[in-house]
Amino acid sequence: MSTDEFGGGQTGRDDILVVTTNEVPGREVQRVIGEIFGLTVRSRNLGSQIGAGIKSVFGGELRGLTKTLAETRQQAVERLIDQARERGADAVLAMRYEVSQAEDIGTEVCAYGTAVVLGPPRG
């Protein structure tokens, strides 16, 4: 498996800047739109669960589950970006993830942050 399967971040959709920082160097926030989020819940794959059970006995990374979580996080970010775009933002500041179990049927991933409109670059 390549590292691309376990990575994250923006995927060529450059109209909305997503950062984990509270500000963007060289840019000023002109308008705060407010909190936005992207949410997804994924059920567990039976094959991954069986593999995870075996790995838990012998040790090692649960690659199937790692890949599923990376894909789930990416989907949550894409939904976050869609929300920002629909509300007229051009950036999301202080983006974070929250991951939790959803009633023992899957994993809930929420990407959230503050939608803003940035001013032109300074300088």
From TrEMBL:
<comment type="similarity">
    <text>Belongs to the UPF0145 family.</text>
</comment>
<dbReference type="InterPro" id="IPR035439">
    <property type="entry name" value="UPF0145_dom_sf"/>
</dbReference>
<dbReference type="InterPro" id="IPR002765">
    <property type="entry name" value="UPF0145_YbjQ-like"/>
</dbReference>
<dbReference type="Pfam" id="PF01906">
    <property type="entry name" value="YbjQ_1"/>
</dbReference>
<protein>
    <recommendedName>
        <fullName>UPF0145 protein SCA03_52890</fullName>
    </recommendedName>
</protein>
